[in-house]
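Q: I'm writing up a methods section and want to include an example of the input and output format. Could you take the sequence below and give the corresponding predicted structure tokens, formatted cleanly so I can copy it straight into the document?
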Amino acid sequence: MAAKNNKYYPLCAYLKASGKERVTLTRLQIEKILGFKLPQSSRLSSWWANDPDNGHTQACGWVNAGYLVKTESSMFVFVRNS
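A: Here is the clean output for your methods example:
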């Protein structure tokens, strides 16, 4: 799981607690879970790369919870990585 000092930890905890195979969230819902606004760079698809080891610390929020994310229109779909 993402370290509790990672600012994206609340998303990791949320996804883990959901227990669902697929979780669909809006940007606003993600921001509410995190407690802060996502950066402007999150509007780029590359920000959502499923690669926490390549400088994308935000990916710890879903990869360490066992999910991969894909964008569908204005929604973010987190799918359990089996």
